[in-house]
Amino acid sequence: MKYQLFFALLYLFYSVCTYAVDAVEKLDYQEEISVELGLIITSGDTEAKNINAQLNVQQEWQKLRNEVELKYRYASQDDDTSSENYLISEELNYLFGDRNRFLFGRILHEEDKFSGFDYQTAISIGYGCRYIDTEVHRLDLKLGSGYRFVETIQTYSEQLELSDEAIVEATTLYKVNLSEAATLEENFSVEFGSDVTISKSQTSLKTRINDKLAIKLSLEMKYTDKVPEGKNQFNTETLITLTYEI
């Protein structure tokens, strides 16, 4: 089931890009691609490895905006894996009016067995607006609804239980250019479900080294109000990554 969903996401990404290029003039097209990589390896009394990699793609046409995010996180200590997470998401916006209002469709798929959930997939649609849009500040607000599919690891023998529920999601994205070289960004979202509510916060400070390279410091927090027995409701990650913009 999870692999069918994963490949469905990849197919959706390909289909959206193909449709967008065919539907609008190429002259209106803009694209931003960034790659992030962080790697920590220690040896001696304790051997540990931490890897985090991320790919962000933003494409924009006259009436369409497409955003794709791919994440991979891995941690091990003394050859034992302690954390491993995969995430892929895509959001398509249809812009209208003054282009500061939009309808969106979003799909997200995440796999993280160490959280007690084998995978989670959420599909939603809704309305958003770019409430503030200046050279210094940008604020996006979004409200939508959809469906979430969750496969929970019930026991250490890896028995799985599949569940689904309707969700309502609210998201805020605030970005401020502190200077020509530094940018602060806060992304906060809540998914309200009848069984589980998930809150996420991503705060990042990016400082440019040159036109292509930047150093990024991020704090990511996630709160899940109902988790499998023995798992934490609240989790945080602090990341330092090197970002390359293509």
Question: Secondary-structure blueprint of this entry?
Answer:
Elements: H1 2-23, E1 30-42, E2 48-60, E3 64-77, E4 80-96, E5 101-112, E6 117-133, E7 137-153, E8 160-177, E9 182-193, E10 198-208, E11 213-224, E12 234-245
Antiparallel strand pairs: 1-2, 1-12, 2-3, 3-4, 4-5, 5-6, 6-7, 7-8, 8-9, 9-10, 10-11, 11-12
Identify the notable features of this structure and list them briefly.
68% strand; 246 residues; Porin; 1 helix; 12-stranded antiparallel beta barrel; mainly beta
Strand content: over 45%
The unreliable regions are 155-160
Rg over CA atoms, rounded to whole Å, is 19 Å
- Quick one: CATH superfamily? monomeric porin ompg
Please, how many helices? 1
Question: What is the H-and-E element order?
Answer: HEEEEEEEEEEEE
The tally of strands reads 12
Strand ordering within the main sheet: 1-2-3-4-5-6-7-8-9-10-11-12
Number of domains: 1
Terminal Cα separation, in Å?
34 Å
Average pLDDT, to the nearest integer?
A: 84
Shape: globular
Oligomeric state of shown chains: single chain
Secondary structural class: mainly beta
Tell me briefly what this model is.
With about 250 residues, this protein is mainly β.
Describe this structure in words.
The chain is mainly β. The chain has one domain (2-245): Porin (Beta Barrel). The protein has one helix and twelve strands, in the order αββββββββββββ. Strand 5 and strand 6 form a beta hairpin. The chain is globular.
